[in-house]
Every structure is written in C-alpha cells, then in structure tokens.
TrEMBL record:
Name the UniProt record assigns to this protein: Predicted amidophosphoribosyltransferases
Family note: Belongs to the ComF/GntX family.
Gene3D superfamilies: 3.40.50.2020
Listed InterPro entries: ComF/GntX_DNA_util-trans, PRTase-like, PRTase_dom
Native species: Paenibacillus typhae
Protein keywords: Glycosyltransferase, Transferase
GO molecular function: glycosyltransferase activity
Length: 289
C-alpha cells in the first residue's frame, strides 16, 4: 500500500463513525446516533408507538379494554415505547431470560421516549388530535392541570414492578428495576422498590384475561423492609408537590392486559393513603402487546 492511501484511509476512518456490532441484528453497521449499541438500520425498524389509538392505555391498535364498563382505573395513563412485534419480543427475551445486560441502557433509553410522550400528552392534550380534545369533559383532570400553565407535569417517583424471590434467584436481576434505573438517571427522578410480590403468579402468558385479573388481585403488597420504609418516609417529607397530588410512575417491561400494573397501582395508592397523601398513578412500559 502506498503512504498516500494509508493517509487517506486514516482520514476516512476519522470522519466516518466507527462501525459497531449491533445488539439487535448482530451485524456490523453504522451506529445509531440516539440509541446505544444498535445500527441505524435497526433503529429505523423500531416499531415506536408515536400515536396511540387509545390515549388511556397507550395502545397502538383499537382498544376494547379501556371501554369496558365498570372497570375501575387505578392508573390514569400508560405509555409504552414500542409495539410488541416478534423482533421486540426477541430483544426483550435476550435481556430478560438470558441476562444480556448490555441491553439495559438501550431499553432504558427507549423507555425514556415513552416518558417524553406521556409528558407531552399530559401537558398539551390539545395537540393530540382534535377529537381527543373535544372529548375531554369539562371537569376532566387534564383540564384542571392545564389551568395552571406554570406547573408542567413530571413524575415525582418511579416504582418498578417487583418480581418474586424465585424469579430473582433464577434471573439474578429485576428487569423493571434496571429499566427504572436508566430512567431515574436520565430524568433525575428518585426510584424506590415500594412493592413486593406476595405470591408467585406463574406464567401469565398462558392464562386468559379473566384468570390474569383474578390472579393479580392480591399479588402485591407494601415492601416491609425497614430501609425501604425509611426511604419512603424521607421521600414523602421532602417531595415538592405544592397543592397537587403526588405523581407516581409504575415501571414495567411489558403491558399486556394491564392487570399487573393496575394491581401495583392499587397497592401504591393504599400506601400513599396510609400516609394521608393523594397520589395520581401512571405507568410506563417498554412494550405494548
Ligand atoms: Zn442492527
Ligand atoms: Zn386502552
């Protein structure tokens, strides 16, 4: 090789971004600018949920669940980052079951997009289709929030959905807690493991909707660990929420029927009520099935 070619190649490698081995497709490619560890091709293929069809649960397809009558709604809104396509399922499986820890920052930053969406909707619901803003009834709580433009929404606390002790032994980590860690760092929102699982609910994926809901009814309780209780008390005494309820965000990897999230929201709601604090509970989930 002649020295001029060496020199040109040297300059070229300085100018072009280094190739990476992509965490999704495992091929060498140009790195995405916004998400760590994946190629631009895979980034372009991520099934982001940019316009949920259901503003309540963040679902991208038609949603019969939120319209079912008589269903109480302990969470105000859920937002999910992506649709649970086969590629996303594979990615989550590698992270969750095979402990592919390098995926945590990627998935966590993807979850942050859902945070941005949730905040955008609560702060400016009028931007999300005309029909939606006409649908907001006169006393809708989003109207009250908008009455004070100085108070833009942010979450005061993140609470990850807990896994059972046996799951924790099996996997070595709680995937929801790891996702919450990333969000907590990026958004500077404290995170507390307020909940524990009271019984092992088995594989939810093999159960019917009704079975899942019945199963989840008493699946979560307040974490009785003394250090967690102390941290919660200290958080309650310091949190700045002038003239408004606490705004708490439940974090999980996937939203299927919402029964897990609702059960967690009820448990958190009870904990806040026992401290005589009103709380609005929201959820963020990485994928929506
Ligand atoms: Zn790729
Ligand atoms: Zn819905």
């Amino acid at each position: 090789m002649n020295p001029l070619n060496d020199w040109i190649n040297g300059i070229r490698s300085l100018l072009a971004p280094a190739m990476i081995c992509c965490l999704i497709c495992s091929k060498n490619g140009r790195p995405s600018a916004g998400l760590p560890g994946i190629c631009t091709g895979c980034e372009a293929g991520i099934p982001w949920i940019r316009q949920p069809r259901c503003q309540k649960c963040g679902r991208h397809t038609g949603c019969p669940d939120c319209n079912r009558s008589g269903q109480s709604a302990p969470i105000l809104y859920n937002r999910s980052a992506v649709a649970y396509t086969p590629v996303m399922r594979e990615l989550l499986g590698r992270y969750k079951y095979r402990g592919h820890e390098r995926l945590a920052p990627l998935l966590g930053l993807m979850l942050d997009r859902a945070y941005i969406q949730l905040k955008a909707y609560i702060d400016h619901p009028q931007n999300f289709t005309q029909v939606q803003s006409r649908q907001l009834p006169e006393h809708h709580f989003l109207r009250k929030k908008r009455a004070n433009p100085a108070s833009l929404w942010h979450a005061d606390l993140l609470v990850p959905v807990p896994v059972s002790d046996s799951r924790l032994m099996e996997r070595g980590f709680n995937q929801a807690e790891r996702l919450a860690d990333v969000l907590s760092r990026v958004r500077r929102i404290p995170q507390l493991p307020l909940l524990v699982r009271t019984h092992h609910t088995g594989k939810q994926s093999f159960k019917s909707r009704a079975e899942r809901i019945a199963d989840m009814k008493y699946a979560f309780a307040a974490n009785s660990d003394n250090s967690v209780k102390a941290q919660f008390n200290s958080w309650l005494s310091q949190v700045k929420a002038p003239g408004r309820p606490l705004q708490i965000l439940i974090i999980d990897d996937i939203y299927t029927t919402g029964s897990t999230i609702r059960a967690c929201a009820e448990a958190v709601q009870l904990m806040c009520a026992s401290h005589r604090r009103d709380a609005e509970i929201y959820s963020l989930t990485w994928a929506r099935s």
